[in-house]
Amino acid sequence: MAEAERFVVSGRVQGVGFRAFARREAERLGLSGHALNLPDGRVEVLAIGDADAREQFAAALARGPVLARVASVERSPADGEPTGRFVTG
Question: Residue ranges of the chain with pLDDT lower than 50?
Answer without folding.
Answer: none
